[in-house]
Known about the structure:
Strand order of the largest sheet: 1-2-5
Number of strands: 5
CATH architecture of the largest domain: Irregular
Oligomer: single chain
Strand content: 25-35%
Shape: elongated
Distance between the termini: 20 Å
CATH class of the largest domain: Few Secondary Structures
Mean pLDDT: 95
CATH superfamily of the largest domain: IHF-like DNA-binding proteins
Number of domains: 2
Order of helices and strands: HHEEEEEH
Amino acid sequence: MNKSELIKKLTDETHLPLEEAGTVVNIFYDSMKSSLIDRNRIEIRGFGSFKIKEYCGYTGRNPKTGERIAVAPKCLPFFRAGRDLKEFTNK
């Protein structure tokens, strides 16, 4: 399911106009992004949690040339499925 399909599903189930449903979904996404940018953890009970993991820099190799390169530290979003979601998907 992508964002536009989610908006359509919300419109079908709540009878909200398409623009309002789009606004609701965008507010939800923007709120989640803001929380993750602020390094806050997001937990949706029964579904899962999101957090930002910080990775240290390291020395890697260019696979094509074999040249050593420095890989900068980075932060990546990480999702961990909740117990209910795991149980539901393993039926």
